Amino acid sequence: MEKKLGLPSAIAVTVGLIVASSCLLSLGTGIGLAGRGFIISMLIVLVLNICLALSFSELHDLMPDAEGGMGQYTKVGLGSVPSIISNVSAYVVVNLLAASVEVAMCGMVVNELFLPQIPAPAISILFLAALLLINYHGVDIFSKIQNIVVGLLLLSILAMGIISSLKLGTGQIIDAASQTPPTVTGLSGYVSLSSMAFWLFIGIEFVIPVSKSLKNPKRDVLLAMILGISILFVLQSILGNGMTNYVTLNELASSSMPHMVFARNLLGTPGALWMGLITILAGVSTANTVLGGIPNVLAGMAENDLLPKCFAKKNKHNVALAGMLFIGIGDAVLVITGVTNSDTLSSLLLAASCFWLTSYILVNLTVLVLRRRYPDHSARRKSLVLGGIPQIIAIIGDVYMIVHIAEGAQRIFIYQLYFVILAVTLIYAVIWTRFVRKQPMFVPADLSDIEGAASSYTNNQQPAAV
């Protein structure tokens, strides 16, 4: 008999699938721009994601067998075209961009600490090639140590946060008089940085695929999402506060890897090696998860007629080869062309945030639509008191973050990526649904059809860590 998991395990899953080395980059950059005021930006996103957690919890109660696939939720709420857009945006594009950032960071760290004579992009490509070869043979080398890597990263965040906040490091402490002023101030400024803080709490719904293994899923799915991101908020706030004691804000804001600068200033070479090792392990582990998990998402979509059947075909090692090559080649192109150079890492994460925000907008809209279509369903009872207020707040907040994603040349770069890829996805979704499959584009699927198909679909759709 399968052992059921309690609330602590559910929280661990939530936290473990959200945190990654790229979170440290966003945290360091945000603190560099706004100082401790960035914690207010994080608090704003925390509130928005609690509203989102209410939506996912309600959808899970409405479709317990769907196990968290955003594409399934939006298909029953908004139709096939929004379903394709939400799935491709949240799981494919986001992870393609995020994996390229993680691989690029690994190359930069190895170049800085161990192999300065070899260009960082070359090291990144070697990492990517090795992971592709390993995943081609269906071997997940990180499956047994994934929790260890995540645990080390979380403990490192906590330990360095405490050491730096209490000013116990070996480096020189920066007093208030020596600290450079933040470039972003005031509530309006902190709100504008919420899009950067958003990356620190992304992917809260990843606890839903393990809901059937929980002792009390109706209670623990929602609590795990809320408590998980609350714990991350506390840990990252402590670390962000400590960063200001050892690094000037100007240096944090201008660095391509602010967390490495902080670690070196805090503990010298041992600190740099400590943070470097964690960055490499977490980065490679995340990229490996993307290469192993996203092809299965694409295979699940192909089996449900949302993508060409070639994505459903698997090699002799049971690997969805077309999807793996799609992600691998995409990451390689981003690295080779210089898109993932040191100056654009933060911009790539912001672009990825735009795509996930788009999916979350569709999810919140789905909740509002399904409440009208199924007014007597028992899943509505927990939301009657609040009505649609959390969803409306989340939608407004998500739209605001997309509109105010950045400024100047960075904003143009982000919007070019976002709108071009979104347009391509929309054109594909329309052509595929209307002309290839000859199905209605915006007619919602029946709730019973989604529940019936969920078992086979979600076996192939396990979201990757970010």
Let me know the number of strands.
0
* First-residue to last-residue Cα separation: 31 Å
Q: Total number of helical segments? A: 17
- The quaternary state of the protein chains shown equals single chain
**Basic shape:** globular
What does the largest sheet look like?
A: none
Structural features, described:
Helix content is 69%, strand content 0%. By secondary structure, the protein is an all-alpha fold. Helix 3 (38-62) packs across helix 8 (186-192) and helix 4 packs across helix 14. The longest helix has 46 residues, at 258-303. The two termini are 31 Å apart.
Key descriptive features of the protein:
0% strand; 17 helices; mainly alpha; 466 residues
List the helices and strands and how they pair.
Elements: H1 7-18, H2 21-34, H3 38-62, H4 70-78, H5 80-113, H6 120-136, H7 146-165, H8 186-192, H9 194-198, H10 217-243, H11 249-254, H12 258-303, H13 321-336, H14 345-373, H15 389-403, H16 408-436, H17 447-458
